[in-house]
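Extended Data, panel c. Modelled sequence:
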Amino acid sequence: MLELSDLKKTFDDGTVAFEGVNLTVNQGEFVVLLGPSGSGKTTLIRSISGLIDAEVGDILFEGEKLTQETYVRFKRQLGIVFQDFNLVENLTSLNNVLTGLLFSSNIPMSLFYLFNKKQKLKALEMLDNVGLLEKSHSRVSNLSGGQKQRVGIARALVKRPTLLLADEPVASLDPVISFAIMKLLRNLSKEFGITVICSLHQVDLALEFSDRVVGLANGKILIDAKTGSVTKSKIQKVYQGNSQGLTFG
C-alpha cells in the first residue's frame, strides 16, 4: 500500500531528522513507529502526510509516486490523529468531527458548517463508535483529554480513509486512558479495514497493539519485524542511552 524509498530529511540548522529510510507498509497492517523523542518518528509521519517535504527519496501510495499533484488525491484517503488533538475548542464534538469531511463535500458550504443530513448522521455514527454520542453537542473545551482524543479519532475516520497516521496519540494521557485509546484505535482499524502507522515511545503499548514494530533511533531504522518476534534486547538497542518509555509491563 505505502512504500518509502531512501527518504532523508534535514532541518535548516543541519540536523538530520532521518536518512536512508526504506519501508513498505501492507494493506490492513497496524504498524508502530517506536522510539524515544528525537528519533525521527514525528518528522517521518509529517513527511508521509505532506505537512513537510523530505528532500531526498520517494513516497509511493498504491504504486503511485506522491507529488504535489497526486497528494491532493492521496489526502482524500488519508486520516490523521494528532498528539495535541488539534481540535477547535469552542466548537461542539459534532462540528469538529464534521471538519473531517471538508475535502469530500461542498467546501464553501462546509466552511459555514452547513453539512447535509447524511453527513451529520455519519459524524454522529462515528461519535457513537468512539463512545461519545452523548457528548456530540458538548463543546470540546469541556471534554477531558481522553475524550478530546476520541473526538480526534472520530474526525480522522469519519471519511473512512484507507490509511491512518497517528502521531503520538497518547503522549499527553495517563496510562489507563492511553491503553483505552490504543485499544479503540486498534479495534476501529480492524473493523473498517484501515491501515495504520502510529508513532509511540511506550514500548508496552507498541507490543500490545501493533502487528509490526519499526524501531527508530537517531533517524535510522534499527528494527523492522513482526511484533511477536521483537525481543527485549532489540528494543534496548533502540533506547540505548535513553530510558524514556523503556517499560515492558
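The mean pLDDT is 89. This feature is highlighted in the accompanying rendering.
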